[in-house]
Design goal:
single chain; OB fold (Dihydrolipoamide Acetyltransferase, E2P); two-stranded antiparallel ribbon; 3 helices; globular
């Protein structure tokens, strides 16, 4: 089994931590929890991750590991990692917000990842959702992942093991839009006349007019 890799102070994107979802375009696929982790080139996390990938390839393919790694690196469909510029938004045809200048690692799991509190303790079942809601696209997290080989297709995939909120960051995308400046105060509606029994007279139904 491959080794766990800790990614420290990386940005998270597309976090699906509360409910497993089905991948777009694959309606028959298994629902999974998932997230992308964006890693700056000077962060040692990506070196650790890629070293573990290389160790897996050497263990499996021996003297053919270099050729297999080259084949995988050349096809982004066969790997869970790459340069951020490769992750293109199909609506804008531009890289996703925050991805340029980073490496990314996409991690998934059929089981909910462990969420770690600020005190280093795992969130309980009662705390899980509240802790997960703190984690949004653009914030900084610590994460633990496990790369593995999909030998049936000579591909590298990655399990999502644990996530810990680290600090706030600029949210990806527009975020919440403030439209309050487009509104003004509304005058209170006039009181409806009351009937003798103290209740307002009902409006005449349209079909009786």
């Amino acid at each position: 089994m491959s080794e766990l890799v800790k990614l420290e102070k990386v940005r998270i994107s597309f976090p699906q931590l509360i409910e497993a979802t089905i991948a777009k375009g694959y309606p028959l696929s298994e629902p999974k929890f998932s997230a992308d982790f964006l890693i700056l080139p000077d962060n040692p996390g990506f070196t650790k991750f890629y070293t573990e990938v290389n160790n897996l390839l050497v263990e499996k393919y021996k003297d053919k590991a270099v050729q297999v790694r080259g084949m995988i690196d050349a096809d982004k469909g066969k790997r869970c990692y790459g340069k951020g510029e490769e992750r293109i938004d199909k609506k804008t045809f531009e890289p996703y917000d925050g991805y340029p200048g980073h490496f990314y690692v996409t991690a998934k799991n059929s089981y909910a990842p462990q969420l770690i509190m600020h005190n280093g303790q795992p969130a309980t079942e009662a705390q899980y959702k509240a802790e997960a809601r703190k984690i949004y696209g653009g914030c900084f997290v610590n994460a633990v992942v496990r790369p593995w080989l999909q030998t049936s297709d000579e591909a590298v995939r990655c399990d999502l093991i644990a996530v810990q909120f680290c600090s706030d960051g600029e949210a990806f995308g527009e975020g919440n839009v403030d439209a309050s400046g487009m509104f003004s105060a509304v005058a209170p509606a006039p009181m409806k006349p009351a009937t003798d029994n103290g209740f307002a007279s009902p409006a005449t139904p349209s079909f009786m007019k």
